[in-house]
Structures are given as C-alpha cells and as structure tokens.
Amino acid sequence: MSDKCDINSPHEDVVKKLKKEMPDAQSFEKSAALFKALCDPTRSKIIWALDGNELCVCDLSELLGMTQSAISHQLSGLRKANMVKFRKSGKEVFYSLADEHIRIMLESGMEHANEKEDE
Amino acid sequence: MSDKCDINSPHEDVVKKLKKEMPDAQSFEKSAALFKALCDPTRSKIIWALDGNELCVCDLSELLGMTQSAISHQLSGLRKANMVKFRKSGKEVFYSLADEHIRIMLESGMEHANEKEDE
DNA sequence: AGGACAGTTGAACAATTGCTCATATGTTCA
DNA sequence: TGAACATATGAGCAATTGTTCAACTGTCCT
After folding, report:
1. Which domains does chain A possess?
2. Residue B111's Cα: distance from chain center in Å?
3. How far apart are CA A86 and CA A82, in angstroms?
4. Which of A27, A64, B26, B70 is the most buried (most CB within 10 A)?
5. Tens digits of per-residue pLDDT, A64-96?
6. Which helix (H) or strand (E) holds B79?
7. Bases on strand C under 7 Å from any protein CB
8. Which residues 40-79 of A are in CB contact (within 8 Å) with B?
9. pTM for the whole thing?
C-alpha cells in the first residue's frame, strides 16, 4: 500500500471527496469488460462487421483474412461476455450483435481515434 | 487463412461490400489503443479520478489503495499513449487528462455498463 | 552535506492473451 | 453410410500485461 503521502497535502480534501464519490469496484470492472471487447483490433473488426449484418464465422474469416479457428475463438469470448448472439442454421452459425452499447462505443471510439491525428 | 468457405454463399455480396467499406487497419489500431486505456480497472479508475482534477501520484496511490509504483507504471503507459499530461512542482508531479475523448468514452462506458444489469 | 520524501524505472514473475494446430461435433448430400 | 463442410474446442506457445521489489533520481529542508 501507499507509504502514506503527506497528510497535509493541499489535495487531501479532493482525495477525500473522490473517495466518497468513486463508483464501486464492480462498476469499474463492468465498464472495463465492455472496453475489453473493443481493445483488440481483431475483435473490433468483428464487431464493426456485425454492426447491422448477420454473418457466419466463415464470412468473418474471409473478411478479416484470418483463420476460422481464430475467429471462432474470439467469438467465443464475445459470446461469454454477452456481446454477440448467434443462430444456427444447418452447418452455419450466424452471429449478430447482442449489445446496443458496444456498437455505439465502437462507433464513437473510431470517430475519436481518427479526430486525434495529433500525435 | 480461410479454407475458402462456400463461394456461393448468400453472404458473398455482403462480405464484398464490407471489404470495400472497412476502415483501414490503422483506424482499428488507433481505436483499439483508445480502448486499451480503459479496459483495465486500475487505469479507468485513474482516468475517472483525473476527470476534472489535477492529482499527484501520491494522491492516486492513496485513493486507489495501491502502491505508488504500480500507479506510476500505469501513468507511464497513459503518458506514452498521450492520454495524460503532467506538470512537475517541487517533489510532486501533477497529472491531468490530456485527452478530451478518453473522458467522454469512460463516462459513456460507465453509463452503458451500468444500464446493462441484465446478465 | 545529509536525510526524508515523491516519483521513476528495470528486473522478475505469474497471469492472461491471441494465435496455431490438431481434433472433435454436427450437418448436408451423394 | 461416408465424404465434405462449418464450426467449436483444447493443448501448446510466444508475447503481453499488471504487479511487486529494489534501486535510483531529484527536490526540499535542516
């Protein structure tokens, strides 16, 4: 833990206030989980592609130029996080977005990232 | 790569269209980097705390109940990603948010994560 | 100068990640 | 039934992550 920084710091009050206002750990965990789905390019491509489209693993595999297995593994993670849902039809499995939030987050993330040409 | 799924798939057109519309790899990398700052609870707590407040390492360390070293390492990462800026004053180093986007993203992420009580 | 404090940094480590490869399941069609 | 296909999954592996620990830099104060 902290070696107890200067108790008379001019920031003591702010820290105290923040401690009270700070959302509980679980809230941070949840939002982190949401962002986790988007912090990997492969996953964000998948989510981008599924935005408005119902696609099978094979479609995604071709679109992203990646192994069917790699895609399937990622989808499995997104499934566990309730970010995508799926529908089986014969041999194929069609995936689509299960979460409205994640779509919105990706869209604004992509916007922001591209406004940020300053680095 | 893909073992070439059924070429006559009813989704071939969609895939073709998506291939054309798909943003370049770099765009995805950039947005992923933005989300990466937020996908870890420690980092998102730091960003939350710095939202509107200029805090020193020690303040953050006390607020989060974590080692000063752990905080410093995380800040170093956020610095490299241009997410935070800092100002030295005597022994202390004051950090603040350098990026408007990240603030907005965290806020909406926290909102969305908490609306999502359904799991 | 010397001690105390704030912060940074690098090495080390366990845990996690993202992928590949091989294999398994389940479906369609001849 | 058996071959071909779409997908899922587990083991294995290299790379990355998040933290700790110890050592270091720089500043203030006496």
Report:
1. 25-114 (1.10.10.10)
2. 15
3. 10
4. A64
5. 999 999 999 999 999 999 999 999 999 999 999
6. helix B68-80
7. 5-11, 17-22, 26-28
8. 40-41, 44-45, 48-49, 53, 55-56, 58-59, 61-63, 65-68
9. 0.92
